[in-house]
Design goal:
The protein has 392 residues and is an alpha/beta fold. The chain contains 13 helices and 17 strands. It has 2 domains: 145 residues, Aspartate Aminotransferase, domain 1 (Alpha-Beta Complex); 204 residues, Type I PLP-dependent aspartate aminotransferase-like (Major domain) (Aspartate Aminotransferase, domain 2, 3-Layer(aba) Sandwich), CATH 3.40.640. The chain is globular, with a radius of gyration of 22 Å. It binds 4'-deoxy-4'-aminopyridoxal-5'-phosphate.
């Protein structure tokens, strides 16, 4: 149970430890509550006290919104984990990586004053829907949402409108929702969203080293509520334009949050490769969940899940199976054209990939919520598979 928390629909009682029978399993969101036990174990070590007089100022140092100490620790973390080359990059903080999506689109768009050819923002389906929805919200002279890469790749030479236009391609690796490792498809500029490129979710074959990379505290340590993300940017001018965007829209990111993230990263670093390694804890949990989930699905002919090949992981120093944050479920029967709907009828709420231009045959099931929620999910899924056997 979780004292002091509001219970969700599947639990009740003073500490939310009592199960509500036959409730609907909510596996929609990517809220990484599975990390909570780790941070409970490290409660004192990770705690931050902020007195009333503390951090009143807009600024961390003269005219600077970003804590240099936090930047240093982010670089140390990437170096120690080996998932990204950060030492030769500029760092831009954002209110979650969500805020940096548009900051980076702006920063990579043409800056020629007249803007005769706007940046063409694209992604490969199935993609993380906010790339489209956010870009379309701000669509203007500078850049436009131009759909999926498939359409452009198919007739690259004939339909490319002019040589001076630039694609701004979101490349999410591992991808949300299907968790495959991805590479750019078109030849333009790239925003590599590496929110999930950490050893608990994927083998790390080598450090990522794209010109523009995006990371998120929500996926690193589970601290989604702190709203903190960062971009690693090679080119100084691009980094400055992204920082200008942050300055215009929020005068820098919360300094309370920066302080908290510093303390969280210090705990992660202090325990790296030890018996309380956060990545080892999280990997173990995700690995168990992925195995349990697959065991249930293997009894079904109605649904299947994505296959991801094992790869060598430089962090764990061995070849390992994937441990994705999401199951990308496919409905195999002709009559189950809407997979989201098929699961909903079995009392499982998933996230339909249709928003990310995926086929309705697929739906995303989150594996990262609290253990209790995952247990409820497996019960509903087991019922679903057993019902299928009764019918056949
Ligand atoms: N990118 C990807 C691929 C995501 O899955 C998410 C969150 N689900 C985000 C960015 C945004 O994360 P946040 O704003 O919490 O950093």
């Amino acid at each position: 149970g979780r004292p002091g928390c509001e219970c969700n629909g599947c639990f009740h009682g003073p500490d939310c430890s009592r199960r509500t029978l036959n409730c609907t399993a909510d596996a929609e969101s990517a809220d990484q509550m599975f990390m909570e036990p780790y941070w409970m174990r490290h409660a004192a070590e990770s705690a931050v006290v902020v007195s009333g007089w503390h951090r009143l100022s807009y600024f961390a140092t003269d005219g600077e919104y970003q804590s240099v100490e936090l930047e240093r620790h982010i670089r140390r973390l990437h170096r120690a984990v080996g998932n990204a080359v950060a030492d030769d990059k500029h760092i831009v903080f954002g209110t979650g990586s969500m805020k940096l999506i548009n900051a980076l689109v702006h920063a990579l768009s043409p800056d020629d004053g007249t803007i005769s050819s706007p940046g063409m923002v694209v992604a490969t389906a199935p993609y993380y829907a906010p790339y489209r929805t956010q870009t379309m919200m701000f669509d203007g002279r500078e850049y436009k949402w131009e759909g999926t890469t498939e359409a452009w790749a198919a007739n690259a030479s004939s339909s490319h409108p002019s040589n001076s236009s630039t694609f701004i391609e979101f490349v999410t690796s591992p991808n949300n929702p299907d968790f495959l490792l991805r590479k750019p498809v078109l030849g333009g500029r790239v925003i590599a969203d590496h929110a999930y490129y950490w050893p608990h979710f994927t083998p790390i074959p080598s450090p990522a080293d794209e010109d523009v990379m995006l990371f998120s505290a929500s996926k690193l340590s589970g601290h989604a509520g702190s709203r903190f993300g960062w971009a690693l940017v090679r080119d100084e001018k691009v980094a400055l334009r992204a920082k200008e965007y942050i300055e215009e829209s929020s005068l820098g990111e919360s300094r309370d949050t920066q302080l908290r993230m510093l303390s969280i990263i210090k705990v992660i670093l202090a325990n790296l490769h030890g018996k309380e390694d956060m990545f080892a804890f999280a990997h173990e949990e995700m690995s168990t969940r992925w195995t349990r989930f697959n065991t249930v699905v293997s009894g079904s002919r109605r649904i299947s899940v994505q296959k991801i090949s094992p790869q060598f992981c430089t962090y764990l120093n061995r070849t390992r199976e994937p441990t994705p944050a999401f199951a990308w479920v496919k409905c195999e029967r002709k009559q189950d054209q809407d997979c989201y709907d098929a699961l909903l009828k079995a009392n499982i709420i998933s996230w339909s990939g249709v928003d990310g231009e995926a086929s309705a045959r697929y739906t995303r099931v989150s594996l990262v919520k609290a253990r209790d929620d995952f247990d409820v999910l497996l019960e509903r899924l087991t019922d679903f598979v057993n019902d299928e056997k009764k019918q056949s």
